[in-house]
Protein backbone atom coordinates (compact mmCIF):
# COMPACT_ATOMS: atom_id res chain seq x y z
CA UNK A 1 0.00 0.00 0.00
CA UNK A 2 2.99 2.33 0.47
CA UNK A 3 3.33 3.11 -3.21
CA UNK A 4 -0.29 4.33 -3.36
CA UNK A 5 0.63 6.98 -0.77
CA UNK A 6 3.68 7.95 -2.83
CA UNK A 7 1.49 8.17 -5.91
CA UNK A 8 -1.09 10.32 -4.13
CA UNK A 9 1.62 12.64 -2.78
CA UNK A 10 3.06 12.96 -6.27
CA UNK A 11 -0.33 13.89 -7.65
CA UNK A 12 -0.75 16.66 -5.11
CA UNK A 13 2.69 18.03 -5.95
CA UNK A 14 2.08 17.87 -9.67
CA UNK A 15 -1.32 19.49 -9.34
CA UNK A 16 0.41 22.60 -8.01
CA UNK A 17 2.40 22.98 -11.22
CA UNK A 18 0.83 24.89 -14.13
CA UNK A 19 0.00 22.62 -17.03
CA UNK A 20 1.12 19.56 -15.05
CA UNK A 21 -1.59 17.38 -16.53
CA UNK A 22 -1.26 18.57 -20.10
CA UNK A 23 -0.62 15.87 -22.67
CA UNK A 24 2.89 14.46 -22.87
CA UNK A 25 3.14 14.92 -26.65
CA UNK A 26 2.70 18.41 -28.18
CA UNK A 27 1.03 19.02 -31.54
CA UNK A 28 4.46 19.23 -33.16
CA UNK A 29 5.30 15.69 -32.02
CA UNK A 30 5.40 12.89 -34.63
CA UNK A 31 3.27 10.86 -32.22
CA UNK A 32 -0.45 10.99 -33.11
CA UNK A 33 -2.65 12.14 -30.22
CA UNK A 34 -5.77 9.96 -29.97
CA UNK A 35 -8.77 10.34 -27.67
CA UNK A 36 -12.02 8.57 -26.89
CA UNK A 37 -13.89 10.31 -29.70
CA UNK A 38 -11.52 9.68 -32.58
CA UNK A 39 -9.85 6.38 -31.63
CA UNK A 40 -12.32 4.32 -33.63
CA UNK A 41 -11.90 6.38 -36.81
CA UNK A 42 -8.13 6.95 -36.59
CA UNK A 43 -7.02 3.55 -35.30
CA UNK A 44 -9.70 0.84 -35.21
CA UNK A 45 -11.05 1.56 -38.70
CA UNK A 46 -7.69 2.28 -40.30
CA UNK A 47 -6.11 0.00 -42.89
CA UNK A 48 -2.76 0.57 -41.20
CA UNK A 49 -1.18 -1.20 -38.24
CA UNK A 50 -0.80 1.06 -35.19
CA UNK A 51 1.06 1.03 -31.91
CA UNK A 52 -0.79 2.89 -29.16
CA UNK A 53 0.75 4.07 -25.89
CA UNK A 54 -1.63 4.50 -22.97
CA UNK A 55 0.06 6.93 -20.58
CA UNK A 56 -0.33 9.47 -17.80
CA UNK A 57 1.65 12.75 -17.93
CA UNK A 58 2.82 12.39 -14.33
CA UNK A 59 4.27 8.92 -14.97
CA UNK A 60 8.07 8.90 -14.81
CA UNK A 61 8.36 5.79 -16.98
CA UNK A 62 6.23 7.48 -19.65
CA UNK A 63 8.48 10.53 -19.63
CA UNK A 64 11.53 8.26 -19.98
CA UNK A 65 9.93 6.44 -22.91
CA UNK A 66 9.01 9.63 -24.78
CA UNK A 67 12.31 10.19 -26.70
CA UNK A 68 12.45 6.58 -27.94
CA UNK A 69 8.74 6.55 -28.75
CA UNK A 70 9.02 9.73 -30.82
CA UNK A 71 12.02 8.27 -32.63
CA UNK A 72 9.98 5.17 -33.43
CA UNK A 73 7.22 7.42 -34.79
CA UNK A 74 9.68 9.11 -37.16
CA UNK A 75 11.04 5.76 -38.34
CA UNK A 76 7.56 4.37 -38.96
CA UNK A 77 6.26 7.46 -40.75
CA UNK A 78 4.41 6.28 -43.85
CA UNK A 79 4.55 2.63 -42.76
CA UNK A 80 2.40 2.47 -39.63
CA UNK A 81 0.79 4.73 -37.04
CA UNK A 82 2.37 5.61 -33.70
CA UNK A 83 -0.26 7.01 -31.36
CA UNK A 84 -0.77 7.89 -27.70
CA UNK A 85 -3.77 8.18 -25.38
CA UNK A 86 -3.68 10.35 -22.26
CA UNK A 87 -5.46 8.21 -19.66
CA UNK A 88 -5.33 11.06 -17.14
CA UNK A 89 -7.86 12.97 -19.23
CA UNK A 90 -11.33 12.22 -17.85
CA UNK A 91 -12.76 12.01 -21.37
CA UNK A 92 -10.32 9.18 -22.19
CA UNK A 93 -10.77 7.08 -19.05
CA UNK A 94 -13.61 4.98 -20.54
CA UNK A 95 -11.35 4.14 -23.51
CA UNK A 96 -8.46 3.22 -21.20
CA UNK A 97 -10.88 1.18 -19.10
CA UNK A 98 -12.03 -0.64 -22.22
CA UNK A 99 -8.48 -1.92 -22.70
CA UNK A 100 -8.00 -2.77 -19.01
CA UNK A 101 -5.12 -0.35 -18.51
CA UNK A 102 -3.67 -0.69 -15.01
CA UNK A 103 -0.08 0.58 -15.27
CA UNK A 104 1.70 3.19 -17.32
CA UNK A 105 2.99 3.18 -19.93
CA UNK A 106 1.11 0.31 -21.60
CA UNK A 107 1.72 -0.27 -25.31
CA UNK A 108 -0.66 -2.17 -27.57
CA UNK A 109 -0.29 -3.05 -31.25
CA UNK A 110 -3.51 -2.76 -33.26
CA UNK A 111 -3.52 -4.68 -36.54
CA UNK A 112 -6.41 -4.54 -39.04
CA UNK A 113 -8.33 -7.76 -39.59
CA UNK A 114 -7.18 -10.08 -42.37
CA UNK A 115 -10.17 -9.06 -44.50
CA UNK A 116 -12.12 -5.75 -44.66
CA UNK A 117 -14.87 -5.46 -42.08
CA UNK A 118 -13.25 -7.73 -39.50
CA UNK A 119 -12.42 -6.39 -36.05
CA UNK A 120 -8.80 -5.34 -35.57
CA UNK A 121 -6.48 -7.66 -33.66
CA UNK A 122 -5.09 -6.03 -30.51
CA UNK A 123 -1.93 -7.42 -28.88
CA UNK A 124 0.08 -6.31 -25.86
CA UNK A 125 3.58 -5.11 -26.69
CA UNK A 126 5.92 -6.74 -24.18
CA UNK A 127 9.28 -6.03 -25.79
CA UNK A 128 12.07 -3.65 -24.87
CA UNK A 129 11.26 0.04 -24.43
CA UNK A 130 13.62 1.14 -27.19
CA UNK A 131 12.87 2.69 -30.56
CA UNK A 132 14.42 -0.15 -32.55
CA UNK A 133 12.52 -2.85 -30.64
CA UNK A 134 9.20 -1.02 -31.02
CA UNK A 135 9.79 -0.42 -34.74
CA UNK A 136 10.69 -4.07 -35.37
CA UNK A 137 7.61 -5.31 -33.52
CA UNK A 138 5.28 -2.98 -35.43
CA UNK A 139 6.85 -3.69 -38.82
CA UNK A 140 6.35 -7.40 -38.19
CA UNK A 141 2.60 -6.76 -37.76
CA UNK A 142 2.05 -4.75 -40.97
CA UNK A 143 -0.48 -6.67 -43.06
CA UNK A 144 0.81 -8.00 -46.37
CA UNK A 145 -1.53 -7.41 -49.32
CA UNK A 146 1.27 -7.83 -51.88
CA UNK A 147 0.68 -10.76 -54.23
CA UNK A 148 3.66 -13.02 -54.97
CA UNK A 149 3.80 -13.51 -58.74
CA UNK A 150 5.79 -16.27 -60.45
CA UNK A 151 6.11 -17.97 -63.82
CA UNK A 152 3.19 -20.32 -63.09
CA UNK A 153 0.65 -17.73 -61.93
CA UNK A 154 1.51 -14.64 -63.98
CA UNK A 155 -1.42 -15.12 -66.36
CA UNK A 156 -3.91 -15.55 -63.52
CA UNK A 157 -2.52 -12.44 -61.81
CA UNK A 158 -3.11 -10.37 -64.95
CA UNK A 159 -6.55 -11.87 -65.59
CA UNK A 160 -7.81 -11.39 -62.04
CA UNK A 161 -9.82 -8.14 -61.90
CA UNK A 162 -8.57 -7.26 -65.36
CA UNK A 163 -10.04 -3.74 -65.13
CA UNK A 164 -7.96 -2.96 -62.03
CA UNK A 165 -4.53 -1.35 -62.59
CA UNK A 166 -1.56 -3.33 -61.32
CA UNK A 167 1.92 -2.49 -60.06
CA UNK A 168 4.74 -5.04 -60.18
CA UNK A 169 8.01 -4.81 -58.31
CA UNK A 170 10.85 -6.96 -59.66
CA UNK A 171 13.39 -7.65 -56.92
CA UNK A 172 16.21 -9.96 -55.89
CA UNK A 173 14.71 -10.35 -52.41
CA UNK A 174 12.55 -13.27 -51.36
CA UNK A 175 10.72 -11.31 -48.65
CA UNK A 176 8.31 -8.41 -48.98
CA UNK A 177 9.65 -5.15 -47.57
CA UNK A 178 7.67 -2.98 -45.13
CA UNK A 179 7.79 -0.21 -47.75
CA UNK A 180 6.04 -2.29 -50.41
CA UNK A 181 3.52 -3.62 -47.90
CA UNK A 182 2.65 -0.06 -46.89
CA UNK A 183 2.20 0.96 -50.54
CA UNK A 184 -0.14 -1.99 -51.09
CA UNK A 185 -2.19 -0.73 -48.12
CA UNK A 186 -2.26 2.80 -49.59
CA UNK A 187 -3.80 1.46 -52.81
CA UNK A 188 -5.87 -1.39 -51.35
CA UNK A 189 -8.80 -1.97 -53.71
CA UNK A 190 -7.49 0.65 -56.14
CA UNK A 191 -4.27 -0.80 -57.59
CA UNK A 192 -3.21 -4.43 -57.12
CA UNK A 193 0.43 -4.62 -56.02
CA UNK A 194 2.55 -7.66 -56.86
CA UNK A 195 6.14 -8.77 -56.38
CA UNK A 196 8.28 -10.85 -58.76
CA UNK A 197 11.60 -12.36 -57.75
CA UNK A 198 14.50 -12.31 -60.21
CA UNK A 199 14.50 -16.13 -60.28
CA UNK A 200 11.18 -16.13 -62.18
CA UNK A 201 12.83 -16.03 -65.61
CA UNK A 202 9.69 -16.17 -67.76
CA UNK A 203 8.06 -13.18 -66.09
CA UNK A 204 11.32 -11.22 -66.03
CA UNK A 205 11.81 -11.94 -69.74
CA UNK A 206 8.20 -11.14 -70.61
CA UNK A 207 8.58 -7.57 -69.32
CA UNK A 208 12.22 -7.16 -70.38
CA UNK A 209 13.45 -6.37 -66.88
CA UNK A 210 17.25 -6.17 -66.70
CA UNK A 211 17.98 -4.54 -63.36
CA UNK A 212 16.63 -5.00 -59.86
CA UNK A 213 14.69 -3.55 -58.23
CA UNK A 214 12.42 -2.32 -61.03
CA UNK A 215 8.86 -1.05 -60.62
CA UNK A 216 6.35 -1.36 -63.45
CA UNK A 217 2.84 0.06 -63.66
CA UNK A 218 0.41 -2.02 -65.73
CA UNK A 219 -2.61 -0.04 -66.99
CA UNK A 220 -5.82 -2.03 -67.56
CA UNK A 221 -6.76 -3.12 -71.05
CA UNK A 222 -3.34 -4.43 -72.05
CA UNK A 223 -1.70 -1.02 -72.55
CA UNK A 224 2.08 -0.73 -72.52
CA UNK A 225 3.68 -1.01 -69.05
CA UNK A 226 5.03 2.22 -67.55
CA UNK A 227 8.55 1.94 -66.13
CA UNK A 228 9.38 3.86 -62.96
CA UNK A 229 12.74 5.60 -63.14
CA UNK A 230 12.57 7.70 -60.00
CA UNK A 231 14.00 7.32 -56.52
CA UNK A 232 12.87 4.24 -54.58
CA UNK A 233 11.26 6.29 -51.81
CA UNK A 234 7.66 6.01 -50.73
CA UNK A 235 6.40 9.50 -51.59
CA UNK A 236 7.83 9.36 -55.11
CA UNK A 237 6.54 5.83 -55.71
CA UNK A 238 3.06 6.71 -54.47
CA UNK A 239 2.98 9.72 -56.80
CA UNK A 240 3.98 7.47 -59.70
CA UNK A 241 1.32 4.84 -59.00
CA UNK A 242 -1.33 7.53 -58.41
CA UNK A 243 -1.51 8.28 -62.13
CA UNK A 244 -3.74 5.20 -62.44
CA UNK A 245 -5.70 5.60 -59.20
CA UNK A 246 -5.72 7.78 -56.10
CA UNK A 247 -4.56 6.18 -52.82
CA UNK A 248 -7.11 5.63 -50.07
CA UNK A 249 -7.52 8.54 -47.65
CA UNK A 250 -6.54 7.85 -44.07
CA UNK A 251 -8.31 8.60 -41.86
CA UNK A 252 -11.39 7.79 -43.96
CA UNK A 253 -13.48 10.69 -45.23
CA UNK A 254 -16.14 11.60 -42.67
CA UNK A 255 -19.76 10.94 -43.48
CA UNK A 256 -20.64 14.65 -43.38
CA UNK A 257 -18.16 15.47 -46.16
CA UNK A 258 -19.43 12.61 -48.31
CA UNK A 259 -23.02 13.70 -47.82
CA UNK A 260 -22.16 17.27 -48.79
CA UNK A 261 -20.45 16.16 -52.00
CA UNK A 262 -23.24 13.72 -52.76
CA UNK A 263 -25.88 16.40 -52.21
CA UNK A 264 -24.15 18.79 -54.64
CA UNK A 265 -23.87 16.05 -57.23
CA UNK A 266 -27.53 15.11 -56.91
CA UNK A 267 -28.60 18.79 -57.10
CA UNK A 268 -26.84 19.23 -60.45
CA UNK A 269 -28.27 16.08 -62.00
CA UNK A 270 -31.77 16.01 -60.45
CA UNK A 271 -33.46 17.90 -63.29
CA UNK A 272 -32.35 15.35 -65.89
CA UNK A 273 -32.62 12.19 -63.78
CA UNK A 274 -35.57 9.83 -64.06
CA UNK A 275 -37.26 8.41 -60.99
CA UNK A 276 -35.63 5.04 -61.60
CA UNK A 277 -32.13 6.52 -61.72
CA UNK A 278 -32.88 8.53 -58.58
CA UNK A 279 -33.86 5.33 -56.83
CA UNK A 280 -30.65 3.66 -57.96
CA UNK A 281 -28.60 6.65 -56.77
CA UNK A 282 -30.29 6.57 -53.38
CA UNK A 283 -29.43 2.89 -52.99
CA UNK A 284 -25.81 3.51 -53.94
CA UNK A 285 -25.49 6.42 -51.53
CA UNK A 286 -27.00 4.33 -48.76
CA UNK A 287 -24.41 1.61 -49.30
CA UNK A 288 -21.47 4.03 -49.24
CA UNK A 289 -22.71 6.09 -46.32
CA UNK A 290 -23.39 3.20 -43.97
CA UNK A 291 -19.75 2.14 -43.43
CA UNK A 292 -18.70 5.76 -42.93
CA UNK A 293 -21.28 6.25 -40.20
CA UNK A 294 -19.71 3.53 -38.08
CA UNK A 295 -16.36 5.15 -37.12
CA UNK A 296 -17.64 8.05 -35.02
CA UNK A 297 -20.55 6.63 -33.07
CA UNK A 298 -18.93 3.70 -31.23
CA UNK A 299 -16.11 6.00 -30.07
CA UNK A 300 -18.53 8.62 -28.74
CA UNK A 301 -20.53 6.19 -26.63
CA UNK A 302 -17.77 5.40 -24.11
CA UNK A 303 -17.07 9.13 -23.58
CA UNK A 304 -20.61 9.70 -22.28
CA UNK A 305 -20.87 6.41 -20.43
CA UNK A 306 -20.50 6.37 -16.66
CA UNK A 307 -18.90 2.92 -16.76
CA UNK A 308 -15.41 2.16 -18.11
CA UNK A 309 -16.59 -1.20 -19.38
CA UNK A 310 -17.01 -1.33 -23.17
CA UNK A 311 -19.19 -3.85 -25.02
CA UNK A 312 -16.24 -5.45 -26.80
CA UNK A 313 -14.08 -7.89 -24.87
CA UNK A 314 -10.38 -6.97 -24.79
CA UNK A 315 -8.11 -9.58 -26.42
CA UNK A 316 -6.26 -12.08 -24.27
CA UNK A 317 -2.59 -11.26 -23.56
CA UNK A 318 0.08 -12.45 -25.99
CA UNK A 319 3.31 -14.06 -24.76
CA UNK A 320 6.08 -13.45 -27.29
CA UNK A 321 9.21 -14.66 -25.45
CA UNK A 322 10.30 -18.08 -24.18
CA UNK A 323 11.27 -16.68 -20.77
CA UNK A 324 7.87 -15.08 -20.19
CA UNK A 325 6.05 -18.27 -21.19
CA UNK A 326 8.18 -20.34 -18.84
CA UNK A 327 7.90 -18.00 -15.87
CA UNK A 328 4.16 -17.44 -16.31
CA UNK A 329 3.05 -21.03 -16.86
CA UNK A 330 5.86 -23.59 -16.82
CA UNK A 331 7.70 -23.24 -13.50
CA UNK A 332 7.42 -25.86 -10.77
CA UNK A 333 5.22 -23.38 -8.86
CA UNK A 334 2.97 -22.32 -11.76
CA UNK A 335 -0.76 -22.91 -11.51
CA UNK A 336 -3.17 -23.59 -14.37
CA UNK A 337 -2.81 -21.64 -17.61
CA UNK A 338 -4.71 -21.98 -20.88
CA UNK A 339 -2.46 -21.50 -23.91
CA UNK A 340 -3.61 -20.80 -27.46
CA UNK A 341 -0.68 -22.16 -29.50
CA UNK A 342 -0.85 -20.56 -32.95
CA UNK A 343 1.54 -22.12 -35.51
CA UNK A 344 3.77 -19.88 -37.62
CA UNK A 345 1.45 -20.18 -40.61
CA UNK A 346 -1.76 -19.91 -38.60
CA UNK A 347 -1.83 -16.15 -37.97
CA UNK A 348 -4.92 -14.50 -39.46
CA UNK A 349 -6.72 -17.85 -39.97
CA UNK A 350 -10.47 -17.60 -39.38
CA UNK A 351 -10.55 -20.54 -36.95
CA UNK A 352 -7.57 -19.21 -35.01
CA UNK A 353 -9.20 -15.78 -34.70
CA UNK A 354 -12.48 -17.44 -33.68
CA UNK A 355 -10.75 -19.39 -30.90
CA UNK A 356 -8.93 -16.29 -29.62
CA UNK A 357 -12.17 -14.29 -29.71
CA UNK A 358 -14.00 -17.03 -27.76
CA UNK A 359 -11.31 -17.04 -25.08
CA UNK A 360 -11.44 -13.22 -24.90
CA UNK A 361 -15.23 -13.26 -24.52
CA UNK A 362 -15.03 -15.93 -21.82
CA UNK A 363 -12.35 -14.07 -19.83
CA UNK A 364 -14.37 -10.87 -20.13
CA UNK A 365 -17.53 -12.65 -18.96
CA UNK A 366 -15.79 -13.93 -15.82
CA UNK A 367 -14.24 -10.53 -15.13
CA UNK A 368 -17.63 -8.83 -15.41
CA UNK A 369 -19.07 -11.32 -12.93
CA UNK A 370 -16.11 -10.85 -10.54
CA UNK A 371 -15.43 -14.59 -10.75
CA UNK A 372 -11.93 -16.03 -10.47
CA UNK A 373 -10.54 -17.78 -13.54
CA UNK A 374 -7.07 -18.96 -14.47
CA UNK A 375 -5.26 -16.88 -17.12
CA UNK A 376 -5.50 -17.30 -20.90
CA UNK A 377 -2.51 -16.50 -23.15
CA UNK A 378 -1.99 -16.42 -26.91
CA UNK A 379 1.37 -17.93 -27.90
CA UNK A 380 2.07 -17.33 -31.62
CA UNK A 381 4.95 -19.42 -32.98
CA UNK A 382 5.71 -16.63 -35.46
CA UNK A 383 7.10 -14.47 -32.63
CA UNK A 384 7.71 -16.96 -29.79
CA UNK A 385 10.09 -19.78 -30.76
CA UNK A 386 9.28 -21.66 -27.54
CA UNK A 387 5.77 -22.31 -28.87
CA UNK A 388 7.24 -24.91 -31.24
CA UNK A 389 9.13 -26.52 -28.33
CA UNK A 390 5.93 -26.85 -26.30
CA UNK A 391 3.97 -28.12 -29.30
CA UNK A 392 6.59 -30.80 -30.03
CA UNK A 393 6.92 -31.89 -26.40
CA UNK A 394 3.14 -32.37 -26.21
CA UNK A 395 3.17 -34.42 -29.43
CA UNK A 396 1.11 -31.87 -31.37
CA UNK A 397 3.66 -30.97 -34.05
CA UNK A 398 1.82 -32.97 -36.73
CA UNK A 399 -1.51 -31.28 -36.02
CA UNK A 400 -3.12 -29.50 -38.98
CA UNK A 401 -5.24 -27.26 -36.74
CA UNK A 402 -4.65 -23.49 -37.12
CA UNK A 403 -4.65 -23.22 -33.32
CA UNK A 404 -4.16 -25.64 -30.44
CA UNK A 405 -5.80 -24.90 -27.08
CA UNK A 406 -4.11 -26.59 -24.14
CA UNK A 407 -4.40 -26.22 -20.38
CA UNK A 408 -1.19 -26.78 -18.41
CA UNK A 409 -0.49 -27.03 -14.70
CA UNK A 410 3.26 -27.33 -14.18
CA UNK A 411 2.90 -27.42 -10.39
CA UNK A 412 0.79 -30.56 -10.57
CA UNK A 413 2.51 -31.71 -13.79
CA UNK A 414 -0.53 -32.25 -16.04
CA UNK A 415 -1.90 -30.90 -19.30
CA UNK A 416 -5.13 -31.18 -21.28
CA UNK A 417 -5.93 -30.65 -24.94
CA UNK A 418 -9.10 -29.14 -26.38
CA UNK A 419 -10.40 -31.02 -29.42
CA UNK A 420 -13.77 -29.46 -30.19
CA UNK A 421 -15.20 -26.58 -32.26
CA UNK A 422 -13.77 -23.14 -31.55
CA UNK A 423 -17.06 -21.48 -30.60
CA UNK A 424 -17.69 -19.91 -27.21
CA UNK A 425 -20.21 -22.51 -25.96
CA UNK A 426 -17.95 -25.54 -26.48
CA UNK A 427 -14.79 -23.84 -25.21
CA UNK A 428 -16.63 -22.67 -22.09
CA UNK A 429 -17.79 -26.25 -21.43
CA UNK A 430 -14.15 -27.39 -21.65
CA UNK A 431 -13.05 -24.65 -19.26
CA UNK A 432 -15.81 -25.64 -16.82
CA UNK A 433 -14.62 -29.25 -16.96
CA UNK A 434 -11.10 -28.14 -16.05
CA UNK A 435 -12.42 -26.07 -13.15
CA UNK A 436 -14.36 -29.10 -11.89
CA UNK A 437 -11.32 -31.40 -12.37
CA UNK A 438 -13.24 -33.46 -14.91
CA UNK A 439 -11.88 -34.99 -18.10
CA UNK A 440 -8.65 -36.70 -19.12
CA UNK A 441 -5.31 -35.39 -17.93
CA UNK A 442 -1.94 -36.17 -19.51
CA UNK A 443 1.43 -36.08 -17.76
CA UNK A 444 3.27 -32.85 -18.55
CA UNK A 445 6.73 -33.67 -20.01
CA UNK A 446 9.43 -32.96 -17.44
CA UNK A 447 11.63 -31.12 -19.96
CA UNK A 448 9.07 -28.31 -20.17
CA UNK A 449 9.14 -27.55 -16.44
CA UNK A 450 11.67 -25.00 -15.16
CA UNK A 451 12.45 -23.52 -11.77
CA UNK A 452 11.17 -20.02 -10.95
CA UNK A 453 13.58 -17.18 -11.62
CA UNK A 454 15.28 -15.83 -8.46
CA UNK A 455 13.58 -12.75 -7.07
CA UNK A 456 15.42 -9.80 -5.51
CA UNK A 457 14.47 -8.74 -1.97
CA UNK A 458 12.96 -5.43 -3.06
CA UNK A 459 10.94 -7.20 -5.73
CA UNK A 460 9.69 -9.70 -3.15
CA UNK A 461 8.37 -6.81 -1.05
CA UNK A 462 6.54 -5.35 -4.01
CA UNK A 463 5.27 -8.67 -5.34
CA UNK A 464 2.12 -8.91 -3.16
CA UNK A 465 1.02 -5.47 -4.42
CA UNK A 466 1.67 -6.39 -8.05
CA UNK A 467 -0.26 -9.62 -7.58
CA UNK A 468 -3.11 -7.65 -6.06
CA UNK A 469 -3.17 -5.31 -9.06
CA UNK A 470 -3.14 -8.23 -11.48
CA UNK A 471 -6.12 -9.78 -9.76
CA UNK A 472 -7.91 -6.42 -9.78
CA UNK A 473 -7.29 -6.24 -13.51
CA UNK A 474 -8.97 -9.62 -13.95
CA UNK A 475 -11.99 -8.26 -12.14
CA UNK A 476 -12.30 -5.30 -14.50
CA UNK A 477 -11.26 -2.45 -12.21
CA UNK A 478 -10.84 1.10 -13.44
CA UNK A 479 -7.95 2.46 -15.45
CA UNK A 480 -6.52 5.12 -13.17
CA UNK A 481 -4.49 2.80 -10.93
CA UNK A 482 -0.93 3.80 -9.95
CA UNK A 483 1.93 2.45 -12.01
CA UNK A 484 3.38 -0.85 -10.69
CA UNK A 485 6.70 -0.51 -8.86
CA UNK A 486 8.12 -3.64 -10.51
CA UNK A 487 7.33 -2.55 -14.05
CA UNK A 488 10.19 -3.37 -16.44
CA UNK A 489 10.99 0.21 -17.50
CA UNK A 490 11.57 1.29 -13.89
CA UNK A 491 15.30 0.64 -14.27
CA UNK A 492 15.56 2.67 -17.47
CA UNK A 493 16.93 6.14 -16.77
CA UNK A 494 16.14 9.29 -18.67
CA UNK A 495 19.75 9.41 -19.84
CA UNK A 496 19.55 5.90 -21.33
CA UNK A 497 16.33 6.71 -23.15
CA UNK A 498 17.75 9.93 -24.58
CA UNK A 499 20.95 8.19 -25.63
CA UNK A 500 18.97 5.45 -27.38
CA UNK A 501 16.78 8.03 -29.09
CA UNK A 502 19.79 9.83 -30.51
CA UNK A 503 21.12 6.77 -32.31
CA UNK A 504 21.26 6.52 -36.09
CA UNK A 505 17.72 6.62 -37.54
CA UNK A 506 16.19 3.23 -38.28
CA UNK A 507 15.83 2.72 -42.03
CA UNK A 508 12.84 0.83 -43.41
CA UNK A 509 12.53 2.53 -46.81
CA UNK A 510 14.28 -0.16 -48.80
CA UNK A 511 13.00 -2.71 -51.31
Describe the protein's architecture and organization.
Helix content is 39%, strand content 14%. With 511 residues, the protein is α/β, with parallel strands linked by helices. The protein has three domains: 21-143 and 477-501, Glutaredoxin (3-Layer(aba) Sandwich); 147-244, Glutaredoxin, CATH 3.40.30; 332-448, Glutaredoxin, CATH 3.40.30.10. The strands form three sheets. A five-stranded mixed sheet has the order 1-3-2-4-5, covered by helices on one side. Strands 6-8-7-9-10 form a five-stranded mixed sheet. The termini are far apart. Mean pLDDT is 77; it is low at 1-21, 255-310 and 457-504.
Task: Kindly list the characteristics that best describe this protein.
single chain, 511 residues, alpha/beta, Glutaredoxin, 3 domains, five-stranded mixed beta sheet, 18 helices, Thioredoxin-like_sf, disulfide bond
Number of domains: 3
CATH architecture of the largest domain: 3-Layer(aba) Sandwich
Strand order of the largest sheet: 1-3-2-4-5
Shape: globular
What is the total tally of β strands?
15
Pick out the low-confidence regions: 1-21, 255-310, 457-504
Biggest sheet overview:
5 strands, mixed
> What would CATH call the class of the largest domain?
Alpha Beta
Cα separation of the termini? 53 Å
Q: What do the pLDDT scores average to?
A: 77
Strand content: 5-15%
Structural class: alpha/beta
The CATH superfamily label of the largest domain reads Glutaredoxin
The name of the CATH topology of the largest domain is: Glutaredoxin
- Computed over alpha carbons, the radius of gyration is 26 Å
Helix content estimate? 25-40%
Number of helices: 18
Amino acid sequence: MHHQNIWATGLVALAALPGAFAGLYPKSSPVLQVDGKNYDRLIAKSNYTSVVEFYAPWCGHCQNLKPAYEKAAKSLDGLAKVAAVNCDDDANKPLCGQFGIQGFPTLKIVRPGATPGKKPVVEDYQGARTASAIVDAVVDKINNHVKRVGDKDMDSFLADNAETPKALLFTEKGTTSPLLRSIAIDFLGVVTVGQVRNTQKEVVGKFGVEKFPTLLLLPPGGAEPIVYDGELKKDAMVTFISQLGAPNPDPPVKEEKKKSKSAKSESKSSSSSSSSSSSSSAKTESKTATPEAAPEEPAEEPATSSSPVAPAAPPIPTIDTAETLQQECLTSKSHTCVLALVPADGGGDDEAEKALASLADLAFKYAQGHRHLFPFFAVPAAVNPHAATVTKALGLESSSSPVELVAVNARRRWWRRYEGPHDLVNIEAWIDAIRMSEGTKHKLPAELIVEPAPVKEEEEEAKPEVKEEEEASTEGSTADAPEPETEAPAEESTEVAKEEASETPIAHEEL
